[in-house]
Amino acid sequence: QGRSSCLSAALFGEDCEISRDQLYELLKYAALGKCHNATQPSWCRIYHQSHLAGVVVIVLHEMSQLHFYKFYLQFKHLRKVFRHRFTLTPSANFLASLYGEGANLKSQNMAQGLTSTSSQCIPKSSDLQRDPIIQKYGEKKRGLTSYTLTLEEQKKNDYPVKGSPKCKGYVYTECDQQRTDSSPLFGLDCEMCLTAKGNEVARVSLVDARGRCLLNELVKPESTVVHYRTRFSGITKEMLLPVKTRLSDIQTRLKKMLPRDAVLVGHSLNGDLQALEMIHPSVIDTSLLFARSEGRRFKLKFLAKAVLGKEIQCEQRLGHDPAEDARAALELAQFFIEQGPAKVAELNLEMLQTTEKLAEVSQKRPVLQPQGYRFQKQLNEPPQLSKPCFLECLQVTGQKPLLLGRQELDSSGLCQSNLSTSNKQILQKALEDVPLSTFSIIQFSLGPENIASHILAELCEKVGSKLTDLLTIYAGPFQESFCLKSVKKEFGRCGPIQSFTVVTETYQPYVCIQYEVLEAAQLAVESLNGAEVAGSCIKVQRPVTAAMLDCDVLIKELELDVENEGVIYVAGLKKSLTEMDLQEEFSQLKDLETLFLPKDLQSGKHRNCCFLKFQKSQSAVDALEVINGWTMKGSKLRSRNALAPGHLWRWIREMNHSNGKQGRNILYKKKEQLSDSEQDLRKKVKKLDHHIKKLYRSLQNNTLCVVLFPGVN
Questions:
Q1: What's the rounded Cα separation, in Å, for the pair 401 and 426?
Q2: What does pLDDT average to over the chain?
Q3: Measured in whole angstroms, how far is the alpha carbon of residue 498 from the centre of its chain?
Q4: What is the spatial distance between Cα 345 and Cα 336, in angstroms, rounded to a whole number?
Q5: Over pLDDT 90: what percentage of the chain?
Q6: Angle of CA points 332, 337, 343, to nearest 5°
Q7: Could you tell me the CA-to-CA distances from 441 to 426, 429, 444, 470, 704 in Å, in that order?
Q8: Which fold has domain 148-339?
Q9: What's a Gene Ontology MF term here (predicted)?
Q10: Contact in structure between 656 and 516 (CB atoms under 8 Å)
Q11: Rounded CA gap, 428 and 691, in Å?
Q12: Beta bridge partners of 592
């Protein structure tokens, strides 16, 4: 979360878990930037990294997602200010991995540019002038319009163009708007099968500038398939049997999806456009962009490894993944535009290619190091990859990282504990020293007495119980002979039901319904309380317990949570509707950015609800008015503001599953003692939130601030 908006993460719904390595990617690029051989993280983008004043990592030791939601109301500042939240996968000590001690950081992205660049790897100035890339584009950085193919270049490289006799019957994308250097880029790739007609499209993928997959569709060829080319395409006869989508459907969808000034990016894109039988006026071809002499071209697989540090088209996998290839081509174009021809020429790709081929001959494949490739004295000896160490990277650039808290680094780089330091002392020191450092790690702690197993188990049980109560509603009274099926159907229109039971202990029958999502339970309370269902005027309410007394406050705060801004929940969908159907139905809604369709964990089938994310909050408000009461394919829709971000939504399901096994009857041992412990924890959390608020407000503008809840295991 920057003091100025600089972080963009294209994650929504369930896709919100990141690994330690991905966090490392983010921090490394934020701290080092392009000047020191770091590259954009694979999972998000930082815009204007050079404007960052610094990076601050706040570590809340012994705390996890469990604490965040148990004390959600106490974390008042944290949840209102930090707009991006992700589930961090369990890992070893984060500090140790950050400093390279005992960390097994083998990820390709983690290895990028961590070794210093040797004089052998960067060509001399005179050699640079002879580089085909410099000869074609010059040394200065240019905007994207300088790299789009001219009409003559398109004709020369067999691209479909308007007016060509070969392109009779081809569909024109009608993207005629003037291109500028801020025009949107889209990566495109197709996989083909050989038919009686020739090459025909069997799969199409389109990704946007953030790498999000907008289209990944199988296509039924018009002619009889002669060869599926499964080894390369990944397409089999069985895969295409149920497919009904035809080329004309894809052409129509692409025309609708592409803005009027769209620039398509691909590797040898002419073949894809020919197979699609489409004409597009503005393209960047990465096989031509990374120019070589004598008309030769680099393979996409090689460029992705050498430039981006990414393995694609793996031999272990059956066929190519067009979405992966489209994304790789797009990122290569973005790298070229952002870094400029001189930086690309310095990679010395021609020499890298030669070295790789020599290594293949001697059956020793080298590990390519993007942007900082070190050549060995003997070409047939694969280069050795040095262990990445974030601390060394910072020190090489002249930056001295600041580490404050109960854990300190000794001379060997190992973390040592200093339990005498209080959170207040750490805060005071941070307020003095953070402005003087460009990379700081500030550690706060709840104290070892608060991570006892019985306290954590009690917290887990209480949070699980409260989540269960929030997901549960009681409805009734009903007549003795009420229709159970019609009641379940009515409440099912609010969202997916996990359990449905009849309560018979009462004078008249009631039903107890546990939903899978918070929004469904809240929608049932709001829309069916006081309504007539199965011939009875019923009351709908949640369980009344001590823990639920602040339910209304919690629901309101969740609704106002910054992560739910512009997101609405829609229920009552027919399960026969596909994601494509919903995209088309909701396409008329203004500023719709993303549609997330939850699926059942076991069957893989989608639920009767979805989440819609809008670019503007007002557009979400307007959509609610339109959708409520809207009939789609004979089914009446219900909607409301979202309550649970993707990571919480998934966590609820996990807690639900755990509670379902244990049952809802929870025994609280040593009640008074645990109540005191919880009260003490609540006070400490409130103080921690205040410390974060004070530290955050002291930061310079354009500071990237990350808060970690690493947990205890």
A1: 16
A2: 81
A3: 28
A4: 10
A5: 46
A6: 85
A7: 11, 12, 10, 36, 12
A8: Nucleotidyltransferase; domain 5 (3.30.420)
A9: exonuclease activity
A10: yes
A11: 10
A12: 614
pLDDT at residue 669, as a whole number: 36
What 3 state SS string does 623-673 have? HHHHHCCCEECCEECEEEECCCCHHHHHHHHHHHHHHHHHCCCCCCCCHHH
Half-sphere exposure of 675 (CA within 13 A, CB side): 7
Q: Which tokens is 510 given?
A: 């009631």
Task: Tell me which H or E stretch contains 44.
Answer: strand 44-46
pLDDT digits (tens, 9 = 90+) for 495-506: 999 999 999 888
Strand order of the sheet with strand 609-614? 592-596, 609-614, 567-571, 638-641
381 contacts: CB under 8 Å, gap ≥ 6: 364
What tokens appear for 115 in the block? 């070794």
Type of residue found at 611 = F
Structure tokens at 457: 């188990």
Rounded CA gap, 639 and 619, in Å? Answer: 14
Contact 652, 517 (CB under 8 A): yes
Q: What is the pTM of this model?
A: 0.55
Helix (H, G, I), strand (E, B) or coil at 486: helix
Count of alpha carbons within 13 angstroms of residue 172, beta-carbon side: 11
- pLDDT digits 0-9 by tens, 635-675: 899 999 999 876 676 676 666 555 544 434 333 333 334 45
Q: Output the pLDDT for position 388.
A: 43
CA distances from 55 to 87, 129, 409, 549, 707 (A): 20, 38, 19, 40, 11
Tokens of 199: 């090459």
CA 651, CA 516: separation in Å to the nearest integer?
Answer: 11
Q: Each residue of 108-151: pLDDT tens digit?
A: 222 222 222 333 345 555 567 788 999 999 999 999 999 999 99
Give the C-alpha distances (Å, rounded to integers) separating 176 from 207, 255, 576. 20, 12, 38
Q: Which amino acid is at 572?
A: G
C-alpha angle 459/462/466, rounded to 5°?
140
User: What residue has token string 């609280």?
Assistant: 668
In sequence order, what are the residues at sequence separation of 6 or more whose Cβ sits closer than 8 angstroms to the Cβ of residue 20? Answer: 88, 89, 91, 94, 97
Contacts of 565 (CB under 8 A, 6+ apart): 617
Element holding 201 (H helix, E strand)? strand 198-207
Q: How far apart are the first and last CA of the chain?
A: 25
How does pLDDT run across 222-276, given as a tens digit for each residue?
999 988 888 888 899 999 999 999 999 999 999 999 999 999 999 999 999 999 9
CB 440 within 8 A of CB 57: yes
Assign a CATH topology to domain 565-642. Alpha-Beta Plaits (3.30.70)
pLDDT recorded at residue 121: 43
What six digits make up the tokens of 399?
């930056």
Residue type, 13: G
What stretches of 409-561 show up as alpha helix (H) in DSSP?
A: 423-433, 453-471, 484-492, 518-528, 551-560
CA 413 vs CA 96, 251, 516: distances in Å:
8, 58, 46
Provide long-range contacts, Cβ within 8 A and 24+ apart, for 664-670. 664/465, 664/468, 666/461, 666/462, 666/465, 668/458
**Angle at 112 (CA atoms; ends 108, 113), nearest 5 degrees:** 160
∠ CA 89-90-92, nearest 5°, is 130
The token pair that represents 546 in the structure block: 């001590």
Main-chain phi, psi angles of 126, to 5 degrees:
-65, -35
Of 353, 351, 366, 442, the C-alpha closest to 128 is 351
Unique residue bearing structure tokens 């009420």: 482
